[in-house]
Amino acid sequence: MASMLLSTLRSCPVSPSWAIYQCLIYPFLSISVRLSVPSVQTKSKKSLARPGMKNIVLVEGVRTPFLLSGTTYVSTLFFILFYLSLRGLLNKTGLPKDAVDYIIYGTVIQEVKTSNVAREAALGAGFSDKIPAHTVTMACISSNQAMTSGVGLIAAGQCDAIVAGGVEFMSDVPIRHSRKMRKTMLSLNKAKTLGAKLGLIGSIRMAHLAPELPAVAEFSTAETMGHSADRLAAAFGVTRLEQDEFALRSHTLAKKAQDAGLLQDVISFKVPGRDIVSKDNGIRPSSMEQMGKLKAAFIKPHGTVTAANSSFLTDGASAVLIMSEEKALAMGYKPKAYLRDFVYVSQDPKDQLLLGPTYGTPKVLERAGLTMNDIDVFEFHEAFAGQIMANLKAMDSDWFGQTYLGRKSKVGAPPMEKFNLWGGSLSLGHPFGATGCRLVTTVAHRLQKEGGQYGLVAACAAGGQGHAMVIEAYPQ
Fold first, then answer.
1. 102-116, 216-230, 326-340 — which one is most confidently predicted on average?
2. Quick one: which H or E segment has residue 134?
3. Cys-Cys with 298: which of 52, 226, 321, 354 at CB 3.0–4.6 Å?
4. What percentage of residues in the chain have a pLDDT greater than 90?
5. What confidence tier does 5 reach under pLDDT thresholds 50, 70, 90?
6. E strands present in 361-423
7. Which domains does the chain have, with CATH numbers?
8. Catalytic residue among 12, 159, 437, 460
9. 66 Cβ partners below 8 Å, 6+ apart?
């Protein structure tokens, strides 16, 4: 394994400081993550309610089925997915269309014709035109930002009822002309004489026609996220075997949850001109043998990140109804959970791009006055299996905690018997702007199902950012 790791590092364009960091930290990261799933024990703890502060609750959460891009949603529109998630939320809650104070949606790759897609879809779904709406973007934690922005509006007394959510439509992303071609076309539009127009047309060369395709890459480093995940896995000594095992676990648990009807946030609907969709279509339990045949996807030939242990390009939308507890009860709703403390974190976008959960988890626990042992349900965003395993090893390292987190000891890794038990982004899919709402809704449902009291959501995002939130079960 050591020789393979050295080969990987030689093939990676890593900085000397990163190589030293890898060598220093590797001896501390020999933990073996158990992938078994025993039952969670119900605990009784104090509530996180605070005197003088509003209780903010999750009333309901829904999402469209998350589908592989280029499949059933391919002929629909970005706007339609968002609209359908809003309609699904209205149908499931019976919410009056004028009872919402504000609507916030997250998305990453925006459709240029609906730059404020939250407003356009809200109008299309029949919400009152008196309800303000805006769209936010924060990479993979865009809908997390939408939700917490809503929490802030309620906490500040500005609103009582918020609809938040997110959408991503990778089947039809905007593709631009090259910069030179755009410049020529804009000049052509301003040209006043036939001669000027012909001169501009004559200046066009074949190279100008090459399109600019969107890429899941960091602007600051020009490095794809998969490339970063591969280097991170190598630095933390995460083997290909560990990554494939975790990916298989995700798909197996997701299939089990889907078959048992546990994914109750998924709404069914008929895609215009296509079939009725009622479940995620990326859940595909395989075998270690089949997964082992795949070649490296990013750092070739020695990388360990493959198509099988990475999340896939996904189309989907999600929506949640968030209210003050007082408002929810006055309207006759039975909330699912309290939304408690949350934090956002940011670190080096090159060498620590995907370590958001490691940085966010101890901070949000400290704010809430909790420890890892108090958490009954963990839901972490699975961008890559290597990213998840690297975070778990970093959280379980005293050296990393002391050196990078300013702690006396390690954070501690979440026990796998509490971790992503209904699958995760590797298997369910990851529409960039919509995953946060899925994570929060899943925590609420798992707390109800498993009898736990506290749940923790954590996610990484492009730019080296991250989010973590504590959720408390609503008394049943």
1. 326-340
2. strand 133-136
3. 226
4. 71
5. very low
6. 377-380
7. 56-173+315-330 (3.40.47.10), 183-209 (no CATH)
8. 460
9. 280, 282, 314, 315, 316, 428, 429, 430, 431, 434, 438
Residue 412 sits at the vertex; the CA angle it makes with 406 and 416, to the nearest 5 degrees, is: 150
Amino acid at 106: G
For every residue of 9-61, which 3-state class applies, written as one string? HHHCCCCHHHHHHHHHHHHHCCCCCCCCCCCCCCCCCCCCCCCCCCCEEEEEE
Instruction: Let me know if 159 is a catalytic residue.
Output: no
Backbone angles phi, psi at 360, to 5 degrees: -80, -35
CA–CA dist 291, 435 (Å, integer)? 25
Q: 219 burial class (0-12, 13-18, 19+ CB within 10 angstroms)?
A: exposed
pLDDT digits (tens, 9 = 90+) for 432-444: 999 999 999 999 9
Rounded Cα distance between 243 and 240, Å, is: 5
Cα–Cα distance between 279 and 259 in angstroms, integer? Answer: 10
Handedness of CA 402, 404, 405, 410 (dihedral sign): negative
**Token pair of 314, please?**
């996904």
What mean pLDDT is reported for the chain?
89
The whole-number pLDDT of residue 28 equals: 39
460 included as an active-site residue: yes
The owner of tokens 């929490």 is: 151
pLDDT, tens digit, for every residue of 159-193?
999 999 999 998 887 777 788 878 888 888 888 89
Q: Out of 12, 140, 159, 437, pick the active-site residue.
A: 140
pTM of the model: 0.87
Q: Are strands 67-68 and 56-63 parallel, antiparallel or unpaired?
A: unpaired
- State how far the Cα of 425 lies from the Cα of 100, in Å rounded to an integer: 30
SS3 state of residue 415: coil
Q: Residue 240 corresponds to which tokens in the numbers above? A: 């290909």
| Dist. CA 416–CA 388, nearest whole Å | 12
